[in-house]
Design brief:
With about 180 residues, chain A is mainly alpha-helical. Chain A is about 80% helix and about 0% strand. Chain B has nine helices and no strands. The chains are: A mainly alpha (about 180), B mainly alpha (about 190).
């Protein structure tokens, strides 16, 4: 159990930049070094964790933990993944609060802010490609973006509606098509 | 104060529950709730938090939840200790749905991953996530992050330059985001 916690603590501590950067590290630790699961199993887990809501890295760790030691294992691996983030951010938050007004920090962050906006804008196009946008579903992201940006609709409702819409569309239209064929 | 903590918990629970599409999609949800809806943070503070979450170890979703939990409580006028509790509540709440869902549906989803209904749901979700990200970027393009063309054209045009530089480095040259953040921080220090 402690082994699970320690392994995922290590993984959490050494990945910078989010979930997908974690995959090679998880593969290295969990598949090659500890041999807890096979590479094929990991690939399956990644596919499922991607389609589940929540934080990708946490999802993966819960899966692996559960597979090895049931609920307790899932709990400790999730705790291990979250703990380094939590502690580091807390430390930064406590310190940064005091340096916020400092002119050096202020200038640095004035330069960083537009860069962060660009970093959020850049994956839009990559994701548009992987979502297989076509002339038939191109309106979905456009309507979603306008609803959130200009009308102030909560992204949570947009996601909820998109999921239900996709399901309903499948129920009403796709089945007809299939029976026609 | 209890109401603030309950809202914090509920908000991040929902974000964890509906956070499809990875870290940046979650950022868009956090922004929608925490900045646009509850006004716990200003857009500028939020952008700083994203920058810090991006450049520190760990998943960006957890990092930003922890940070937002802390800042929301401290901004409301409570002490650092309550802020720590806020960050605990937000991080716990954002992970909780994953935990419950994973245990419940891990087998179910494994089996039905290629079931038509599940695929239809994702046919709706995937394009919507693209819209979510676009909205997050559009909402952050404002006076707080770019300065104002009218009051200080220098800061505005430098910010636009930094935006273009960062966009191209990431999109065309695939430069590591942390490196981009550091370079733009240096540029900001020197120019702004």
């Amino acid at each position: 159990m402690f082994e699970l916690f320690r392994t995922f603590f290590h993984i959490g501590l050494f990945t910078i930049g989010g979930g997908y950067a974690m995959i090679p590290l998880i593969e290295d630790k969990v598949v090659s070094e500890k041999q807890w699961i096979s590479k094929e199993e990991l690939m399956d887990l990644i596919a499922v964790a991607q389609s589940c809501p929540g934080i990708f890295a946490v999802n993966i760790s819960i899966f692996i933990g559960y597979k090895l030691r049931k609920t307790k294992g899932a709990f400790f691996s999730a705790l291990g993944t979250v703990m380094p983030s939590f502690l580091i951010i807390l430390l930064i938050a406590l310190v940064f609060q005091q340096f916020r007004e400092n002119w050096v920090v202020e200038r640095i962050f004035r330069g960083i802010r537009p860069a962060v906006v660009a970093l959020i804008a850049a994956p839009v196009f990559r994701m548009a490609k992987s979502a297989k946008l076509s002339k038939y579903n191109f309106w979905i992201p456009v309507v979603a973006a306008i609803a959130i940006w200009l009308l102030g609709v909560s992204p949570i409702y947009v996601i909820l509606l998109a999921g239900i819409g996709g399901y309903a569309y499948g129920q009403f239209f796709k089945e007809e098509e299939e029976t026609e064929i | 104060m209890i109401i603030l903590f309950l809202r914090l918990f509920w908000t991040f629970f929902l974000i964890g529950l509906f956070g499809f599409g990875g870290g940046y999609a979650m950022i868009s949800m956090i922004q929608g709730e925490v900045v646009s809806h509850y006004h716990w943070l200003t857009t500028g503070e939020f952008t700083d938090i994203v920058a810090i979450s991006q450049s520190t170890p760990g998943p960006i979703g957890i990092n930003s939840a922890t940070y937002v939990g802390y800042s929301s409580v401290v901004n409301a006028g409570y002490s650092h200790a309550w802020g720590v509790l806020g960050s605990f509540i937000a991080s716990f709440a954002v992970v909780l749905p994953s935990f419950v869902l994973m245990l419940l549906i891990s087998k179910f989803l494994m089996k039905y991953r290629h079931h038509p209904s599940v695929e239809h749901v994702f046919q709706g979700l995937r394009p919507a996530v693209v819209g979510l990200l676009a909205a997050a970027a559009l909402l952050l393009i404002n006076r707080e992050n770019f300065g104002s063309l009218h009051d200080c054209p220098w800061q505005f045009w430098i910010s636009v330059g930094i935006f273009c530089f960062a966009f191209v480095s990431q999109r065309v040259y695939h430069i590591n985001p942390i490196r981009i953040i550091i370079m733009c921080g240096v540029a900001g220090f020197l120019l702004l």
